[in-house]
Amino acid sequence: MARENKEKEVFALTKMLKDANIFYLINFSSLSVPQVTDLRQRIREAKGSCKVAKKSFVLLALKESYLEGFLPYLENLTGATGFVLGEEANSQRLAQVLTNFGKEFGSFGVKAGYFSGRLLSSEEIQLLARLPSRDTILSELIGSLKLPLAGFLNLLVAPIRDFINLLRNIEKKEKK
To answer: Mind giving me the DSSP string for 95-159?
Structure first.
């Protein structure tokens, strides 16, 4: 690869890292081609994307992006390094996909992550994967907001309902 192409690749990686809200650093070295294809498919289904680059390019891009905190995670990696990119809305789903894939294929691992300006360890990514999805949390929140409103509405309607029941009871007594 010519020096100019290498510089373009590092520049593209640097821009990608600076623009990313969230990304995960993964180790591809121990996966077979069908496993990598399966992983990429799962990542796409979770609305993420996957980028693979040489370790030396990744080191340069991380330094230029002021993300030196990742450098210790790259020491044990060999060959190609993968990045899984996503948005904040699907961060939990991507963490789930990567964690589940790691359970299926023990040799695969998520080394680190970056979420809204914060470096995440692999343990923190596993914790993120165990959280309920955003939709689940929102539905539980709406349900908890709905319950007091329903109780308040019942409180408002109770006097009218009791009055109607009183009138029905009076009507029944008069008929007898």
So the answer is: HHHHHHHHHHSTT-EEEEEEETTEEEEHHHHHHHHHSPPHHHHHHHHHHHHHHHHHHHHHHHHHH
